Amino acid sequence: MEETNKNNKKSLFVPILCAITLCSVLFSAFQTVYILRLASGSVGNFSYMRGQEEEPMPAPEREEADPTVSPVANPEFSLEHAASVTDPNKTTLSTTEIVTLVSPATVSVYVMTEVNGATTPVYTGSGFFVSPDGYVVTNRHVVEELVDDSGYSVLVMVPGYDVPVEAELVGSDIQTDIAVLKAEEQDEPYDYVTLGDSDSLQVGELVVAIGNPLGRLSGTVTVGVVSALDRQVNNAGYTMELIQTDASINTGNSGGPLINSFGEVIGVTNAKIGTAEGLGFAIPISDVDEIIQSIINFGYVSNRPYLGVTVGQIASDDYYGAVAGVYVSEVEEGGPAQVAGLRPGDIIRSFDGVAITHSDDIIDVRDLHVPGDEVTVVVERDGREIEFNLVIGDSNDAEQ
User: Fold this and answer.
1) Residue 68 belongs to a domain
2) Could you list the residue range(s) of the whole structural domain that residue 3 is in?
3) Alpha-carbon torsion 145, 148, 151, 154, what sign?
4) Which CATH number belongs to the domain containing residue 281 in this structure?
5) Last-in-domain residue among 183, 209, 225
6) Which residues contact 280 (CB under 8 A, 6 or more apart)?
7) What is the pLDDT of residue 50?
8) Mind telling me the catalytic residues?
9) Does the residue 53 lie in any domain?
10) Per-residue pLDDT at 46
11) Does one domain contain both 140 and 217?
12) Domain identity same for 281 and 312
């Protein structure tokens, strides 16, 4: 009986195994056919509807990508084009056109003195002509030795001239770091620049600097943008609001022109941060155009209001128990503030009727006046308010 059962089980096993094998073969064949149809586009998400396309569309021809070039690189990009500004009344120039226009009017400045029996350049800088008869604008710090010491002279190297041209100091202004030289007149008039409007500058705008870096690379051109405006930088004790640029500025560039897209001088380069790259500065030309004219007219800055006082700002949390305000920190001997009666430690509460909350408020009010004007100053001293009458002086009198 047991032998019969075993034979029956064997007879059933063989058909079952065959059936399983057949199903596997059929499934594999079906799967293979489906995959081929899927790859050909007959079925699936990208299947074609029959009757709409008799032939598959040919793939567009493409050049093979260069693996060494970034996929976001743009060979058509031009910084000059992107950063240039436009004006319907002015022609936007290329960098080469700007250089062609301004370079002939840009000079190298050499302050000379006698060293070991030979006349030698000891200080160098840059400058630019503002008139055909030879007035040159540069920085005061480039030629400051000429101000108080007769043992120095100055030469300017003019593009196209074989030998340097002798020049004289017309005048200078320590507050704005501006000086004017007068080059000896020649048979032909000098090329000179056009001054622009630095008040209309925009951050990101193209600028070009031309100068004499290191005192021996005259005519060097660098290009960048206006990185920032109104950067406060201290110069000889005076706070200046300067144009910041990433156009390369180096020792010897001081006094050279910073130029906009229209070939106009909008700044006088005067400083750089030596510990960083791309941090150069220039004096906005609109801040000093009247200074330049006054120096040319009179040899000094005339009719500029002067108070003879140094102030400082203190906030309520600067010191424990401190009273917030604008404090008088120094009073110049014989200056308008001292004559009026102000003392160090006074807190200025109002100036000419204007409430003073910041030191700049005093400057803003001062610059609305001319020397000789009388204003009322209210200060707090020892807990009580005192009123003074102050006659505004002339800055040139203070510098004599």
Assistant:
1) no
2) 1-29
3) positive
4) 2.40.10.10
5) 183
6) 209, 224, 244, 245, 246, 247, 248, 249, 253, 269, 271, 272
7) 39
8) 141, 177, 254
9) no
10) 38
11) no
12) no
Domain-ending residue, one of 123, 158, 183: 183
Task: Please check whether residues 309 and 393 belong to one and the same domain.
Answer: yes
d(CA 379, CA 385): 6
Same domain membership, residue 381 and residue 315: yes
Q: Please give the structure tokens belonging to residue 47.
A: 């299947």
Average pLDDT taken over every residue of the chain: 81
Q: Are 380 and 387 in contact (CB under 8 A)?
A: no
* Same domain flag for 167 and 109: yes
State the pLDDT at residue 23.
64
In a domain, 309, yes or no: yes
Number of C-beta neighbours around residue 354 at 10 A: 13
Residue 301 CB contacts under 8 Å (≥ 6 apart), including other chains: 171, 173, 175, 291, 294, 295, 395, 396
Q: Residue 300: what residue type? A: Y
Contact 221, 246 (CB under 8 A): no
Concatenated DSSP letters of 175-220: TTTEEEEEEPP-SSPPP---B--GGG--TT-EEEEEE-GGGT-TTE
Low-confidence ranges of the chain (pLDDT < 50): 6, 38, 41, 43-54, 73
Kindly state whether residue 75 falls inside one of the protein's structural domains.
no
Contact indicator for 264, 101 with CB cutoff of 8 Å: no
How far apart CA 344 and CA 352 sit, in angstroms, is 20
What pLDDT, on the 0 to 100 scale, is given for residue 302? Answer: 82
Regarding whether 283 and 211 lie in a shared domain, the answer is yes
Number of Cβ within 10 Å of residue 394's Cβ equals 19
Element (H, E) at 327: strand 325-331
Total domain count, the chain: 4
